[in-house]
Structures are given as structure tokens and as C-alpha cells.
Amino acid sequence: MKPVHTSFVDAVKDIHDGATIMVGGFGLVGIPENLIKALLETGVKDLTIISNNCGVDDWGLGLLLQNKQVKKMISSYVGENKEFERQVLSGELEVELVPQGSLSEKIRAGGAGIPGFYTPAGVGTPIAKGKETKVFNGKEYLLEEGLVADFSLVRAAKGDKMGNLIYNKTAQNFNPMIATAGKVTIAEVEELVEIGDLPPDQIHTPSVYVQRLIVGKQEKRIERLTVSD
Amino acid sequence: MNIRERIARRAEKEVQDGFFVNLGIGMPTLVANYISDNKQVVLQSENGLLGIGPYPTKENVDPDLINAGKETVTAIDGASYFSSAESFAMIRGGHINLAILGAMEVAENGDLANWMIPGKMIKGMGGAMDLVHGAQKVVIIMEHVNRKGQPKILKQCSLPLTGKKVVNRIITDRAVIDVTDQGLKLVEVMEGYTVEDIQNSTEPELIIADDLK
Known about the structure:
The complex is a heterodimer.
Chain A: E1 4-5, H1 8-12, E2 20-23, H2 33-42, E3 47-50, H3 62-66, E4 70-75, H4 82-89, E5 94-97, H5 100-111, E6 116-119, E7 133-136, E8 139-145, E9 149-160, E10 165-166, H6 175-181, E11 182-193, E12 212-215
Parallel strand pairs in A: 1-12, 2-3, 2-9, 3-4, 4-5, 9-11, 11-12
Antiparallel strand pairs in A: 6-8, 7-8, 9-10
Chain B: H1 3-12, E1 20-23, H2 27-30, E2 42-45, E3 49-52, E4 75-81, H3 84-92, E5 98-101, E6 105-107, E7 112-113, H4 128-134, E8 137-141, E9 153-154, E10 169-171, E11 175-180, E12 183-189, H5 195-200, E13 207-208
Parallel strand pairs in B: 1-2, 1-5, 5-8, 6-9, 8-10, 12-13
Antiparallel strand pairs in B: 2-3, 3-4, 6-7, 10-11, 11-12
Helix pairs in contact in B: 3-4
């Protein structure tokens, strides 16, 4: 049994100034909407946030940016956010861009106890600056280090009270790796079920990775609505 | 037919029956519209979907189902969902037959620049740096010249690279050019252009294919 919180603010209140946090999601899909909003309320500052994107100006991690709570972002793509651009250009915000496959693998490695790995992504580009390289079978690779965090915030479609999680469609994205790489992982689930109600062979995130649970209703804003009719 | 459509239709010929394909954001995404019904093709989206379907009807929009361009999509029968780490394992591991991407500049040795203009805002490279090394074949589609009419196919890229020696083929509104060990080889000239036109709008010296189309 994992603690099931009823207050989002309580669930995140020990996230301290200067903490490193990982936040699941790709664009606005699969983000833990209410945990992010709770950080606005606690007002925690100088966060280093590891997340593929940084929300949009008025939603997701963009809200924390507007409120100047972010010191550094580690992401693969941040192009949807004007406030982001302003803060980077004015020197208020630090940004480290990482190729998306390297970012997901750095998080996976961090959670799996692997301190580093070699990848071809970024060789011969500005990303390679200061990184060790090695040749395997005649091809050059660079060393990327694993990432861990003080807290990980994820969103799942379903969770049981043990902390097992199941994600929905492309809302899975970075969430499973992020769940493994936080010292404390807080899962916001759309639906919480009893132990035994989730089929064990369908679990995406086994319970060992999750320390806290909370049920949250999601707005699920759509960034680019494209339809065929 | 506008330029983008013409390029996308030509790029479709690169897609073979049975291929697993990743299409980049923007013009490459348009290629999906022209894939012949005679080919069984599975489109991969790096946010964790193998088997992208058409855009949904208004009624069937699912906010949890998007492509890498963050557009709402559907999934075909036989599709699968997975994590971003799994997605890039299949990309980096060489399991994707073809990646079609856009470019700002391509160099004669296959260097690609498509993610950053220094001095302007840096948006990030997304998955491009992983894709160019992992896909079995990398095809670039772009307009042959930039807005000022200057070549985008250069002896050396002036912009920061996405990858070194990673491009196999370039398809533009004017020509199809292969990157070979000997240099750039002109293999097709589009209707309305001559070999001379192509050479004049391409910085490196072109080798003319014996079976030039």
C-alpha cells in the first residue's frame, strides 16, 4: 500500500527550493496537470526541471516558467513557448538541450543504475562539446551520463493502491522512465483501483518505483487539433 | 500542384512496401498523404506509436493520441504504443527502414543542418540527432534554394550540424541527388529544369548519373 494523497499541495510540499525534478509528458500529452499546478501554490523556487518539453505559455510547465520558479530546463524541444525564449535571452533561465533519444535513455539509465552509455546522436554537433568520445567498429560515439532526480512527477491513466501504473496510448511517452529515476516518485492517476484489479501482465510501471499516489481530473488540452472532417 | 506537394509526391517513391518509416515534422509529414494503397507501410512516431493512422474525425479526437508534431491522430489496426526510450531503441537500433526529414542545409559529404540558427532562438533538436544515425536510410526533402535564392546544398554547412555524414539522398523541387563516396550524384532532374539549372543552384560540383532521369 502506498499513501494516497487527497491534497495536491500536500503531495508536493516537500519539494524544496533548488530541487531537481523530472516531469512526464510529450507536449501537453501525459503531463501530471494538477501536480504541476500544486507547485505554483507551494511557490518552490530555483527548480531544475528535466522534461522533454516545457509546456505552453499558459499550461503545463509553462505555468512554472511564468511564475519564475525554474532555474534550469533540460529538454529536447522547447519551441512552443514565448516566455521561455524571453527568459533564456535575458539570462534568467538556463537551458540544456539534449537529443530526444539521448534524453529518454539518460533517464532510463539513471533509473536503472547505469551511470553512462555511448550513443552516436550528437557526434560532430555542438552537443558533443566537452563529451568523451570513443570509436566502436569504426564509428564514433559519445558518452552520455544517466540522469536522476530528487522527485519525479508522472501521470498514468490507471493506478492501483500498490502503485502499479498503466498509461494510455501516447500519454505513456517519458512517464515510465521518469517514474524509475526519481528518489521520490509521485503518480497522478486518472483512476485509482483496488489491489488486484490491474492485470499483472499489463502493468507499465511496477509498484516499486512509485512512492505516492493521488487521483487527478485532467483537462487534457490539445495543442494542435487536426481532424479529417 | 504546389512545390511542397510535388516534393512530397516524389518522396513517396522512396517508401517501399513493407517499410517502417519515420516522417519528420512539417513537409515530411505530408508524404503520408500520398502513400500508395498498394504498399503496406507502418509509420513510426517517436513519441511512442508504431502505426500512425489518418487524422481523426471531430468525434473521434483523443487528446492522449498525438504524433511527434503534437497533432491529434489515430492508430491503425496492428499499431502499438510504447515509451520514448523504447521508441528511440527501435530508431537507434536500426529497425526503422527510412527517415524522411527536412533541412536548412546539406553538405556534399552528407552533413546535415536542420535544427539551429545561431543568434536566433534555439528551439531544440527533438529526435532529429538520434534519427539521422539510426534509420537505415535518411532522405532529406527541402526546397532546392533558400528564400534569397541561394543554394542550400553546400560544400560545407555554415549552420551547426544535426549529424555528420548522415544523409543518403536529397529530394528537392528541382532534382534528386544522392550522396556518394565520390561526391554528390545528380540522378533526376524535375520537369522544367535542366542539368545546368541544377548545377547553377547547387554549390558543390555534381556528378551526372549515367542513367539520369
